[in-house]
């Protein structure tokens, strides 16, 4: 069986920089096109309506950007990473929400001035127009999704619950597109304008459906994944081994993650993102999870033979991001899973140093495996234990410099709890490690 290997990238232009440049350049070009079409169109009946339509056009562009950011386009995902795309998706979502609110208020105010009636009567009248009513419903549903995405709310609900609520956003976006289609005064002013918006609709919706529906269904039908073994790693951590057909043809890389469902054992809505905890070998896949919620805690009871539905692989936390010949891998807690996979990745060549931060050695899951791999590869593995405090700050700038004197000459991969990751990133900035050499994986996911 032949396993497809991907060459390590150490090019002068970081892949993430190239992808960001392409994405934002495409957005800038489309903003310019919208401006040209807006000012070339017949004037609105008053300035307030014109402002409302101008904001509405930009809101339409933000909808398309939202779809692209979560379409899981492989070219973007492997270069930027879903964690960063997720962060952009979140902030674009809030921007879109306020753009739609502003658009709605200006439209109501514009017609109120035009008809010389109160805004409340204008609002009621617009609610009787199908296009406007659909837009109002889209805005209301978006308010629900935005409320569920506020950090204070996110902390109060389980991931699975938030995931289900967040799906409302896609229905809201679909209604917004219908509203745009029915509202013809701005979007159908000429054949060129109509062709432009149809092209955007087809491209964005097509990319979303391909990445989120067609590709996952095709891959799962092709690979027929099933649970092969469930192995407890500690009192609260378990590894699940998955096998299937033609796994050597799955484009999975060490450091990536997949979104896992176990239909028949759990409901379809219970979905979790877990990193691959071993480098793909073409025969099996492995995920390792810590029991931090009902979803991950239940994996210990998975029966062998359970069907698996997996989306992915996703993520840019791979050897493709390398810019240097030597590497530092830093893991904290269960964030060790993609680090362990990278350590075993044959495409990650050169001198490798691993820092594994845990409270006690008993918390260091997969430690025996990592020591064996490090010994085979000639890598240096440092287990960093104990509570952080005076006299024990291994991830501080001084601590990192003492452990890895040539740290500024290495690519640095960091994965762990947010507090640890933030502390390490701050230390790397203090040490002067170039930003292009720093690769961080955060536990974040947008649906």
UniProtKB/TrEMBL annotation:
Taxonomy, superkingdom: Bacteria
GO cellular component: membrane
CDD domains, A to Z: FNR_like_3
Cofactor or coenzyme needed: FAD
Classification lineage: Bacteria, Bacillati, Actinomycetota, Actinomycetes, Micromonosporales
PROSITE patterns noted in UniProt: FAD_FR (PS51384)
Matches recorded under InterPro entries: FAD-bd_FR_type, Fe3_Rdtase_TM_dom, FNR_nucleotide-bd, MRET, OxRdtase_FAD/NAD-bd, Riboflavin_synthase-like_b-brl
Protein name as annotated: Putative ferric reductase
